[in-house]
Amino acid sequence: xxxxxxxxxxxxxxxxxxxxxxxxxxxxxxxxxxxxxxxxxxxxxxxxxxxxxxxxxxxxxxxxxxxxxxxxxxxxxxxxxxxxxxxxxx
Length: 90
Fold this sequence. Notes:
Blueprint (H helix, E strand, L loop, with lengths): L1 H7 L12 H6 L8 H9 L4 H6 L5 E6 L2 E6 L8 E2 L3 E2 L3
Antiparallel strand pairs: 1-2, 2-3, 2-4
């Protein structure tokens, strides 16, 4: 992303990696991106694969001391909505 942003500003850069470019581009990566990162990728023209193959998560799970909790991630303007706690299932 940094190299792409630099290129858009007319700054030359070199990206060095041990793997071939094709291998890097075809690698499926798991992770969570914050909305600002998604917006930046979209605005700068590198968000096509993200929008095509990515998943939107509407919540998250936490586990601690044998208990499991879930929480929804609210849409802008809505209230936070934690879900009830329940025992962890193996």
